[in-house]
Amino acid sequence: FHAASSQISLILLEGLTFPEGPRWRSGYLWFSDFYSNEVIQVDSAGKRRTVVAVPEQPSGLGWTRDGQLLVVSMRDQRVLRLEGRLLMEHASLSEVSTYWCNDMVVDQHGGAYVGNFGFNRRAGEQACPTTLARISPDGTSSIAADGLWFPNGMVINPAGDMLVVAETFAHRLTAFDRAPDGSLSNRRTFFEDSQMYPDGICLDVEGAIWVADPHNNEVIRILRGGNIQERISLGDRGAYACTLGGSDGRTLYICTNTGSGPENADNRAGKIEFTRVVVPGSGSP
Fold first, then answer.
1. Which of 26, 60, 160, 248 might form a disulfide with 103, Cβ 3.0–4.6 angstroms?
2. Comparing C-alpha atoms, which of 31, 130, 116 is closest to residue 78?
């Protein structure tokens, strides 16, 4: 067991509006910057470039089997596919999502799962459970699960037979068995803590899950079986998402900010922070 560490001081990139959905691929960290409407790629030295603009606000990222970028377009409830320099509609989720779409995980066959907010929190709507959408590799959408409280970050294990989703407003990580056709069953609690607000998550080779918790300004590593093995404090900054990457998979990248709403856009207080960990990443994303 490791006690909470000191605040992370290593910064890869700053001056962002709200970084989310970090993914490591082909030697780069990819992420969405909500309020600048950009998908951004940055190398380990901090050199960045804009990959594509997504007018209705980008979130979760992934790739098809042939390497085309998939990106969640939040406000119009779609997943888009980057073909060359053009964004094409990959899937419409308006019939299977109840409000803005958010994070996404893509499996090894190009099938995807996408969560959504469920309700308009900023308009004062009452919190309610919602759906987890499934997109088949050909772009057909369906409901994979329902009754989830703000389904957020997700991971799929290397074998492809388990999916774990962070239910932010239920204070838990929920696991499902996953069939070859992508259907989900055997819902169960992977971890639950009434003080935890899980947002983005990632998986390591020991089957432990790193959880970004913006409410408690930390990332925590949860072992299979539910024990918290490590906590990393972000001081006065919220941790909204995390992923493992770098050349050896042992760099933990964390998307941090001072808040999440659109009022934070002008502050450009968003950062990508990072630290080194012992156990490398695994699975999807």
1. 60
2. 116
